[in-house]
Amino acid sequence: MPQKPRRAVTFIREVRARFREISLNPLLYQLRPDIDSDARMTTVGSYAILFRVTDAMRIERVVYGGRDLPGIFGT
Q: Which of 2, 9, 64, 67 is most solvent-facing, going by the fewest CB within 10 Å?
């Protein structure tokens, strides 16, 4: 298997593992009031996982961390 498809599979596994970690302890992750009042964030490599905790944990976006994160949420 070429390197890039192999890395893609590994990256998806890393993201899914982080989703599980978030679901177990969502309040441990950094609040990002600059993005939105209840937004939280963690990273996997150079990608940001933005989520909210309401009645349940809700993943809002997985985006490249170098992007304008407040702009993505429209704040």
A: 2
Domain residues for the domain of 36 are 3-72
Q: What is the pTM of this model?
A: 0.86
Bridge partners of residue 73, in order along the sequence = none
Residue 22: give its domain's CATH number.
Answer: 3.30.2310.20
18 neighbors 42 (Cβ within 8 angstroms):
yes
Record the tokens describing residue 50, joined without a space: 């933005």
Q: What is the pLDDT of residues 1-56, one digit of tens each?
A: 567 889 999 999 999 999 999 999 999 999 999 999 999 999 999 999 999 998 88
What three-state secondary structure class fits 26?
helix
